[in-house]
Amino acid sequence: MPRRDEISAAVVEAARQLFADWARRGRDVDVIIAVNPMNRLLWRRWRVVEGLDVRAFCRHNPPPEGLTLGVQQAFQYPVRERQPFGRDWTPIEDLDSVVAKVERELTRWTTS
């Protein structure tokens, strides 16, 4: 298995921390929240994208703004990208700003 570089390790750690902080808060208001690291090939852009994958499922009526009742929704927040089989990553957005953006969304869903 290839070794992770510092940014990949930081993305994995950020996903772990966000899930640990927000999964219980979401459960308290009937919103199931999962935060996972994302490293996948996007076929339409022909790029490998790394970032955060946030999934939410709302079980209470009325749903918070931005969510739909009874539907699992996935939101992707990219941090960097590269060509397939390439080695050079191109930054898309800083990891700290992505984490702040995710926390704003999660706060909006759990407080409304």
Order of helices and strands: HEEEEH
Low-confidence stretches: none
Which percent range describes the beta-strand content? 25-35%
Q: Report the strand count.
A: 4
How many DSSP helices?
2
Shape: elongated
Average pLDDT confidence is 90
Strand order of the largest sheet: 1-2-3-4
Distance between the termini: 43 Å
Largest sheet: 4 strands, antiparallel
Note down, in words, how this protein is organized.
The chain is of the alpha+beta class and 112 residues long. It has one domain (6-106). It has two helices and four strands. It has helices at 6-28, 95-111; strands at 31-42, 47-58, 72-82, 90-91. Helix 1 (6-28) packs parallel to helix 2 (95-111). The protein is elongated.
Please outline what is shown here.
By secondary structure, this protein is of the alpha+beta class. 36% of the residues lie in helices and 33% in strands.
Question: What are the salient characteristics of this protein?
Answer:
112 residues; alpha+beta; four-stranded antiparallel sheet
What layout of secondary structure does this protein have?
Layout: H1 6-28, E1 31-42, E2 47-58, E3 72-82, E4 90-91, H2 95-111
